[in-house]
């Protein structure tokens, strides 16, 4: 994953960089209409069997990554005689600029990847097809929690299921004589238990802990914990503390509630008061690399995709790590997410675009991504059928089967798993950008989360409404 990118964005790019087959969805039974607003162009007549419908799939990535994805498309092209998919790879830095330019000119590709935080906004602008019917009559429909919905219609499905977890360095725990964090939800640590363990795992240059006399907070050589404070991941702790960022349909802002600000403040206090975490300003999406893998932190929160994008290589280099469920404040919460594949409303071939996407996201067509730990399956059967779960998890790329199954597979299906707000909330890009700026002085202790949010609450509410 690259610094500064949000979850599914980095996830998909990293997945493609691993040169394995990717995501998608398909169906040949249904034409679809845009989610709202503008009508899409009428589908052209179905060509004869000797003339394939040509579909363009857009993605961000290098030329090499595009070539690897084209290899997957070529397999699809050879598997049937009605559709031919061409992959269009665009560098990340200019991807959304190019899409916006194409949208204005009426020249969008048929289908492609779209940033999670842009899906609902593009749908509200009439730029995405309703894909609610894509899986009708099929037993391969993704989990409901992976559907991006606008005005009651499904406008995209996540290509993978990803949840937030707690990773830890077993050797550091063993040396400190601290019990590993629980991998079973029923035994999840409370926040206070989490902080207490983090103190035992935090050492200054003289080997003292934060709760001991003589501890020097300016000379810490090993931190006990790190909680990722990217804005979208912070919603976990607002929810866990009984608050939240939004109401249930994303139309009203709840971040001004005391419970929401208090949850965020507890994350800041890991550095400011508890002295168990390094300073993080919530700007880069490389938390596991600069904590667990760097060898400076005993346990850290982040997404399931890290198993495949970074922890496998670290394990081969000698890292002895484990995975656990998140601690909780008042309610047990983890967020699930996944990068979105969409069908643009300007396409003349929505049915064929969905057929390609449905094929592309089938587990058997992106198995390398799943077996490596970059992606988690999108179908319920992989979580509930023990034979399939073993096929997925019982391999050297994962922590021990029993641990991973309870901490990840079962956790993802539990009541603790909630969809990230960009699955149903508009304008999360502007909201999260503003929130990240507002919280900058909170991490360094110049202000409190409550005061920072209160002073900017009107602006946050305006961002939620799309007002500039």
TrEMBL record:
Signal peptide: 1-22
Source species, domain of life: Bacteria
Gene3D superfamilies membership: Periplasmic binding protein-like II (3.40.190.10)
Pfam families assigned to the protein according to its UniProt record, in alphabetical order: SBP_bac_8
Organism name: Cohnella yongneupensis
InterPro entries recorded: Bact_solute-bd_prot1, SBP
Name of the molecule in the record: ABC transporter substrate-binding protein
Record key words, sorted: Signal
């Amino acid at each position: 994953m690259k610094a500064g990118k949000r979850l599914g964005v980095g996830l998909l790019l990293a997945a493609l960089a691993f040169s394995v087959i990717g995501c998608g969805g398909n169906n040949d039974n249904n034409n679809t209409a845009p989610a709202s607003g503008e009508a899409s162009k009428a589908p052209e007549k179905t060509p004869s069997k000797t003339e394939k419908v040509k579909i363009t799939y857009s993605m961000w990535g290098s030329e090499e990554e595009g070539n690897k994805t084209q290899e997957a498309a070529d397999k699809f092209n050879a598997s049937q005689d009605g559709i031919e998919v061409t992959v269009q790879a665009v560098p990340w830095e200019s991807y959304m600029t190019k899409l916006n330019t194409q949208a204005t000119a009426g020249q969008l590709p048929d289908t492609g990847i779209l940033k999670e935080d842009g899906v609902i906004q593009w749908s509200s602008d009439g730029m995405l097809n309703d894909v609610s019917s894509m899986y009708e009559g099929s037993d391969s429909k993704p989990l409901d929690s992976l559907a991006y919905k606008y005005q009651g219609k499904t406008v995209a499905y996540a290509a993978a299921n990803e949840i937030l977890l707690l990773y830890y360095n077993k050797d550091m725990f063993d040396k400190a004589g601290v019990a590993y964090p629980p991998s079973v939800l029923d035994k999840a640590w409370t926040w206070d238990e989490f902080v207490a363990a983090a103190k035992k795992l935090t050492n200054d240059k003289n080997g003292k802990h934060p709760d001991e006399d003589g501890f020097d907070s300016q000379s810490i050589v090993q931190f006990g914990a790190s909680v990722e404070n990217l804005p979208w991941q912070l919603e976990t702790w607002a929810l866990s503390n009984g608050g939240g960022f939004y109401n249930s349909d994303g139309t009203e802002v709840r971040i001004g509630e005391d419970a929401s600000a208090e949850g965020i403040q507890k994350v800041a206090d890991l550095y400011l008061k508890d002295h168990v975490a390094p300073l993080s300003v919530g700007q880069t999406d490389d938390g596991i690399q600069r904590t667990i893998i760097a060898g400076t932190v005993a346990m850290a929160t982040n997404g399931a995709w890290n198993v495949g994008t970074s922890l496998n290589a670290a394990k081969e280099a000698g890292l002895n790590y484990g995975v656990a469920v998140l601690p909780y404040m008042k309610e047990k919460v983890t967020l699930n997410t996944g990068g979105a594949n969409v069908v643009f409303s300007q396409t003349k071939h929505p049915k064929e675009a969905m057929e390609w996407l449905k094929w592309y996201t089938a587990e058997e067509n992106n198995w390398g991504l799943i077996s490596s730990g970059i992606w988690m399956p999108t179908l319920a059967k992989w979580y509930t059928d023990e034979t399939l779960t073993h096929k997925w998890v019982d391999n050297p790329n994962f922590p021990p089967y029993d641990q991973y199954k309870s901490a990840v597979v079962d956790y993802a299906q539990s009541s603790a798993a909630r969809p990230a707000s960009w699955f149903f909330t508009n304008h999360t890009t502007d909201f999260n950008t503003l929130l990240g700026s507002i919280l900058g002085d909170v991490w360094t202790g110049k202000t409190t989360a409550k005061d920072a949010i209160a002073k900017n609450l009107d602006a946050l509410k305006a961002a939620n409404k799309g007002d500039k």
